[in-house]
# Entry
Amino acid sequence: MADRLDELLARERFAILDGGLATELERAGCELDDPLWSARVLLDEPARLTRVHRRFVEAGAEILATASYQATIPGLVARGLDEREARAALRQTVSLARAAAEPATLVAASIGSYGAYLADGSEYRGDYGLDRQALVEFHRPRLRELSAAGPDLLAFETIPDAVEAEAIAELLAREPGPRAWVSFSLRPDASLRISDGTPLARAVRPLLGHPRVAALGVNCLGPREVLAAVEALASLAPLTAIVAYPNSGERWVHPRPGGPGCWAGAGTELEEFQTLAGRWAAAGARLIGGCCRTRPRHIAALVELRAQLDAQP
# Structure
């Protein structure tokens, strides 16, 4: 049976995701230097989250990701919530996105990697060394709460570790809920290896043909690094939608493991971002958006691109 994502993809050559939620929150004056990152605003100023979600909807986003990327039950409890309150906060991320959405807008419940929970840059290294069962147990409570909140999709984001991909495949086979996309973080060296060094082709194997996997892809890499990954995934999974949502071209760096991080380098110009996105679409990407440091104007550029492509004979 077709779900809302299938219906959207049947109408459009590609669906348009949102951009960097945390980036817009920072521009709105929110202080996000916190292990909870954008989820800090969930606790302090939830109405501001809805307003920022709305900016992306107004720019043309058709799928909104919730502010739960770095929100976990242990992380929320560490901030002083009891477990019941932490579970309610996770469900609230879906409600806040829904409040910003148009009737046709889909909501994807964001689930960051274990490395995102560590808040030390591990989602760009994948070197946290847990076995599959430990990762299943880590992700299961959040997966259950977010699924119960009724999102249209789950979004496992910035996955750097091949064992974590195996854990996600197991969870999706065992736990009820909507379909999911799974997107990986890659090494910035054109090797098509995920951050822990595993070849992308091997990392996606547990997810290929999985009935709960709606899309496979990459996120938070540079825009110029996306095309090769889309081409590889389109070859590996010809019947699965490909999702691509890079950062602005800047790169998150940690001077030392566990130390404070910062964004470095120059972002891709908007015109180049739009041109590159056209190549991703031509290569088979069906869900396209932006990650860190991308803004509503990047989403508006994708809307313009799609209109241009649709107008071509």
User: Anything to note?
Assistant: The chain has one domain: 4-311.
